Amino acid sequence: MASSSMALDVSGPSAPEVGELAPPTSVDEPLYEIVNGQRVELPPMGAYSTLVAAELHGHLWLHVREKSLGRSIPEMLFILDRERNLRRRPDVAFVSAERWPLDRPVPLTGDWDVIPDLAVEVVSPHDTAQELLNKVEEFFTHGVRRVWVIYPEQRRAYDYASPTQLRGLTDTEELNGGEILPGLHIALSKLFPPPMPGTSSVAEGLDSEAAR
Predict the structure, then answer these.
(1) What is the mean pLDDT of residues 97-116?
(2) How many domains does the chain have?
(3) I need a surface site. Which of 38, 73, 111, 112 has the fewest CB within 10 A?
(4) Is residue 15 part of a domain?
């Protein structure tokens, strides 16, 4: 997940107003989110986290396409709350055919006005435990049904059914799609490339916060 700590002065190109589609992001423009009407730039993910996010999206894409369950999307900006102008960009997301039928056109430009069923955050060194926990709560508040938080360096994952109901997984276990993605099983040992040296304290911080 790209950290959201870089708030920008939007006196130049402004954040989109409620109900307005954001202009398409150019190749050279940093990714961003809109938090309470303020544009917040996202620092780039590390190479290792980016690879894990791509692997996970690949697993989801093949599964949902084969079973016509919906769509798997990387780095899409979703409109979570129009009144507050809150738009979040999970690293990977799944939108079911129930929430957006497969034959319904997706907007050609701008942000997607739908709440994903599944939001996935892949942790990068810039992320903090507090930012992650806030985002998890935010997703559930606005109707996301499940959240996965992936820690590539630690080769661990957290499967959230609610902000307070979660299951920690090691690389000997697997992510299960449950009712949202029936039949989906992703072994974490296959998801993570060989571990890289060095770890961060983000996972430990999340453990401490979740235990409170």
Answers:
(1) 95
(2) 1
(3) 38
(4) no
Q: How confident is the model at residue 46 (pLDDT cuts 50, 70, 90)?
A: confident
Residue 184 lies in a domain: yes
| Domain around 64 | 27-210
Q: Is the dihedral of CA 163, 165, 170, 174 positive or negative?
A: negative
pLDDT at 44: 83
Please report, for the domain that includes residue 138, its CATH number: 3.90.1570.10
pLDDT given at position 3: 53
Q: Which of 179, 185, 188, 191 is nearest to 96 (CA)?
A: 179
